[in-house]
Design goal:
globular; 220 residues; Rossmann fold; binds S-adenosylmethionine; 8 helices
Amino acid sequence: MMKRVLEPEVMNDPDQVLAYAQADFEEENQSFVDQFFTRYPGLENPHILDLGCGPGDIPIRMARRHATCRVTGIDASQPMIAYAEQAVQKAGLQERVQFLCQRFQDVNLSSPPDAIISNSLVHHVPNPLRFWYSMKMLPKPGSPVLIMDLLRPESPEAAQAIVDEQAASEPEQLRQDFYHSLLAAFTEDEVAAHLAELNLSRLFVDVPDDRHWVVYGQVF
Ligand SMILES: C[S@@+](CC[C@H](N)C(=O)[O-])C[C@H]1O[C@@H](n2cnc3c(N)ncnc32)[C@H](O)[C@@H]1O
């Protein structure tokens, strides 16, 4: 198994941000949102915190799917937050969806959220234990979480094959970013070891397809 190859933590490069913001993640993002509300039905007026929200597509989909939820999306990239703010204005959801330009390591909300979500952030983080620590400390005890990210393939060749299969017709910038993200990602065993190290024993790790892991459950 190849070792993890880090990529830059925050997505600040304008070309990279533009390619990401213009990409079509509808199917993946809607399925993430549907999975959250299917796993956790009956949440009343929840305040949901999205760590590494990027251009804001998932927070907006969460607010459309649940009529009384509030969502706070945080991202350390100012250009990503600028796209997210445009998108929420366009969607007319600014009463219930807000964005903050902050690192998740520095987030300090006036009251703890009722749920935590995060998609495709963890592979950016140099020290994953710092991510799981924040996820443990930020919400109210017993809060539901849904965290998803890429699985690291066995080799650079296997990563390239995934890019060629899944993103054949995408712009070159997006294909390169996808490749580097796969190299920076974690394996299922590594994620399980990180959860155990932080005693997050009510969380489960699952591999829903050949490219992703997902962590779900309640955080205490
Ligand atoms: C691959 S994007 C995922 C965006 C979004 N969650 C989605 O699913 O489309 C990862 C995002 O995490 C952000 N990020 C990386 N490190 C971060 C940190 N320490 N704190 C907050 N955001 C961070 C990046 O700037 C980038 O926008």
